[in-house]
Amino acid sequence: MNILRELDMTEKLYVGDVGTEVVLECGRDLSLAENPAILVRRPDGTARTWPAETEGTRLRYVTRQGDLTMPGMHCLQAAYSQGGFSGRGSTAELMVHRAFA
User: Which uninterrupted H or E stretch holds 59?
Assistant: First the structure.
């Protein structure tokens, strides 16, 4: 699974960014997936769950206020259930920078 970052105004993500599209490629049709989410482990080890939308073979989430509050490496995993499968994809990394970094 690869992460695709669709950034409109910048090459980097920064603490406090809102409206950034985060897309995880899962490599299989997700049209019947249930409970799609992106699981996030933040740099301090705390976990978050971002509710995702399915788009073909991808999970999509748009960041909101409070999502990117910590600089450092964020680990992301796609999670969903479909047919007899319920689980996670491989880990992708997303670097979030301090302002003016």
Answer: strand 58-62
Cα(52)–Cα(4) distance, integer angstroms: 14
Tens digit of each residue's pLDDT (9 = 90 or more) over 43-60? 999 999 999 999 999 999
Q: Which domain holds residue 61?
A: 2-97
CATH code of the domain in which 93 resides:
2.60.40.1930
pTM of the model: 0.86
Instruction: Indicate the number of domains in the chain.
Output: 1
Residue 24 to residue 2: CA distance in whole angstroms: 6
CB 80 within 8 A of CB 59: yes
